Amino acid sequence: MTATKIDGKAIAKEVREEVKAKVAERVAAGKPKPGLATVLVGSDPASEVYVGMKKRMCERLGMESFSHTLPADASQEEVEALVSKLNADPTVNGILVQLPLPDHLDEEKVLQAIDITKDIDGFHPINIGRLAQKGREPLFVPCTPDGCMYMLNKAGAKLEGANAVVLGRSNIVGMPMALLLVKQNATVTICHSRTKNLKEICAEADILIAAVGRPEMVKKDWVKKGAIVIDVGTHRIDDATKEKGYYLTGDVAYDEVAEVAGAVSPSPGGVGPMTIAMLMRNTLRAAEIQQD
Ligand code: GUN
Fold it and tell me: Do 87 and 114 meet the contact criterion of CB atoms below 8 Å apart?
């Protein structure tokens, strides 16, 4: 069996085109461009790259972006004061505080300070709380798990009653992913660093979400025949034989897993582009919520 490739790059392009067209419609109707404000505290190189990508994507889709950078030693009060200013600014529809924050800052308090109608990352405790509760709906869902759900739907996954295994329990991916799958009536197992018989549990999964952060950890014998596998990991592996001196890979050993799975998303080219597309979609939705 050779798995279908779940082409996140192509699916993300469709999502972005839909967002771009809706933004253009709003602007043609005399409404302001949706605006995304990013807050970066410190100068972590990876975070700088992510924030830069988000800013450029806003421009490509006809949206405004406002970049704010605070020094690594910014105080809790300074970060919260910036968030309050952005909450009050009508040109800002979405606020993204890039995580992780430096250790001395209280992340929960910063996220709690964001107006929930501008919480396009879906990390505000109210939005996460609603995601965790039956019969309640968050205004926004975290972008990476939202992108994974979108890809699962595109791949034709039947979630109701499915055995879903989520590898990883982070606040950004694993936990909200598990909550989203439960909302769709999957039976969900969350695995983490203390899980026993990890391989055996994964091998029972109809849906397997790999968000562990270990290069190519998920091998062929971890995957049930016909399962749908989503690879959330991205790793840069040094390799002198490559032109760039490195290559990118995910949490899944793609080539061998594709021999048994029904469908697999690659990394790169899978979840990465979906995350940013969902962020753009959330920013547009924030503008709709606030202005329509
Ligand atoms: N750091 C890694 N992923 C994310 C994300 O989706 N949003 C924010 N704000 N920070 C991140």
Answer: yes
